[in-house]
């Protein structure tokens, strides 16, 4: 796992939609599940959302806690 990806998950904000302005790691799991069923966007944002989906799905949110501070 690239540490820069984890760092972006705790700093980058959702650029559009219902959760515009919310830091990616704070997106609710049902929103990520919805994206998983509909398809993640292409590009970097899609990769980050898919990574966050896998982190939340596997109960690995604790990996992001030290980076939030």
Structure description:
It comes from Solitalea koreensis. This is DUF3820 family protein. Pfam families: QSregVF_b (PF12843). By secondary structure, the chain is an all-alpha fold. The chain has one domain. It has helices at residues 3-9, 29-38, 43-57, 65-68. It starts with a helix and ends with a helix.
Give the helices and strands, then pairings.
Layout: H1 3-9, H2 29-38, H3 43-57, H4 65-68
Helix pairs in contact: 2-3
Protein name: DUF3820 family protein
InterPro entries: QSregVF_b
Helix content: 40-55%
Largest sheet: none
Nearest-angstrom radius of gyration? 11 Å
Mean pLDDT: 95
**What general outline do the C-alpha atoms trace?**
globular
Number of helices: 4
**Element-level helix/strand string:** HHHH
Distance between the termini: 20 Å
Number of domains: 1
Low-pLDDT residue spans: none
Counting DSSP E segments of at least 2 residues, the number of strands comes to 0
Strand content: under 5%
What structural class do helix, strand and pairing data support? mainly alpha
